[in-house]
Amino acid sequence: MDLLSLTLTDWALGGTLLLFVLYKYGTWNHDYFKRKGIKNPKPLPFLGSMATMVFKAKPFAYLLEDICKEFEEEPFVGIFQFREPLVMVKDPELIKRITVKDFEFFTDHRQTITENADSLFSKNLFSLRGEKWRDMRATLSPAFTSSKMKNMFHFMNQCGQQLGDYLHKEISKQQPGKPFVLEMKDLFTRFTNDVIATSAFGVQVDSLTEKNNHFYTMGKAVTNFAGIKHLKFLGFMLFPKVMEFFGIGFLGKNEKQFFSDLVHQTISTREREGIVRPDMIHLLMQARKGELKGDHEKNGDMVNGSLKTKNIDLTDEDIEAQAMIFFFAGFDTASILLSFTSILLAIHKDIQRKLQQEVDEMLGEDQKLTYEKVQKMKYLDMVISESLRLYPPALLIDRLCVKNYTIPATEKQPEYTIKKGEGIWIPVYPIHHNPEYYPDPEKFNPERFSDENKNSINPYTYLPFGMGPRLCIGQRFVLLEAKVALVHILSRFNLTVMEKTPLPLRLTKDGFVMSVEGGFWVGATPRQQAAT
Ligand code: HEM
Ligand SMILES: *[C@@H]1O[C@H](CO)[C@@H](O)[C@H](O)[C@H]1NC(C)=O
Ligand SMILES: *[C@@H]1O[C@H](CO)[C@@H](O)[C@H](O)[C@H]1NC(C)=O
Ligand SMILES: *[C@@H]1O[C@H](CO)[C@@H](O)[C@H](O)[C@H]1NC(C)=O
Which residues of 466-496 are buried (b: 16+ CB within 10 A; e: fewer)? Predict the structure, then answer.
């Protein structure tokens, strides 16, 4: 029988059969949760619960929020990330058990990049697992204590000064009295880049003035998950084994070489010439020599003192991998935080004014910013906390179950065993927008975090930096960085809503990254200071 002699019916029959097989393949495990008496939103073949994201019908944050609303009463629900079943945990008590009390069952993040695929990526703290993670975390923790941040302040403050000077220069090019209209994400990406360069890699650059400096271009390229990189990232998420087989690396060769040369050269120059510059490279070199001491203070990430300072053998590559994490974990997140905060301040003039008053008062006569002054700015802290609630840059936290774990039955759900290898999602954005925890949740209201009010917030409903021993190690670093930037801006400029400001703010529909439709356009004008 040759192809030509096939009739239309044969074709139709064959096609139907093929579709049926595909459908079965795409839905084969869709009764996974149902069989166990656990609720789940209705999945689609292949796409599972991710359809609205793939088709860019809705921001990813809303996809999560819709699921949480649909199953308001359930402590957790089942979802399908494409074909893979995951448990999405919403109940604060259960979140506490998974991230803190029963941490030993959930010590790792889910697999994205395998060790062989890209060691620079897989060797960094975020990706490390089990014992390797524990040792590295203990080694790095002393580099992120308050006293070390005080050293970092100096570098950040220089970048803040550059930021203020840049705005000043650009405004003076405008017609007098006309605001300078700028896109905040671009501004803060450049600022953040410069902070990373000086505090993590020991090089000084000014990416605001020298727009295309090499460090900035390389940093952008290394974190650019858009386009082909985005495909690669998806590839790793969905088929890590296949990507590994074909030897498809995650990071570009050139970029990898650039940063690895930079770290190597810096280390060897410093060792040869005995240069001490109190930045991250220095701290990591100290850690290698076993000279890095922690503070005698209660460290946020030492939840019950189980993590002790410990030294492990750090190779140059390990040091590189940890310095690179500033790019992977701290580049986009920090600029997202600053972009949202500044546009919120432009919209909420009264809050901006109040913050400027605090800044003016604290800066005092000499107008000089110090680490201590930043720490004393309470309202600044409230504003940033509220910005992180409303628009958490990491809108989701994940965990990997490493040992079978049984969630006891509740009125709502039967007993359920999370199997070793199963993933957990903790939907940060919907939790932050739940009116039960935050009345009038869409309102930007820093007073929620005032001394009187903040005690009424359940800590397991406020998760911008995660929770438990896996908490963001860069929290102190980024809070200081953001505060320094805001002080430099607000002490010298007013931020205003312009025609180009996309009001009301709407989250973008593509990707996992928090951003607004139309861009973070804000106007800046110099403040008339009485004295000058
Ligand atoms: C506003 C900015 C930032 C946000 C919102 C953020 C958020 C987070 C979140 C949610 C996690 C996962 C926590 C968990 O699973 O419980 C995390 C982990 C981490 N972050 Fe950040 N982060 C920020 C900035 C930074 C910076 C500047 C660094 C630079 C060092 C950094 C380094 C890390 C590392 C190393 C981890 C992994 C920690 C571990 O697994 O032990 N982050 N971050
Ligand atoms: C710390 O955690 C361990 C393991 O979960 C537990 O056995 C120990 O009692 C905890 N220590 C304190 C002081 O709570
Ligand atoms: C974990 O649970 C699965 C399924 O219930 C079971 O097949 C497996 O043997 C369990 N593993 C351990 C180590 O108990
Ligand atoms: C800056 O904002 C404050 C408060 O809104 C206002 O009093 C002041 O005039 C503004 N300065 C300029 C130059 O617009």
Answer: bbbbbbbbbebbbbbbbbbbbbbbbbbbbbb
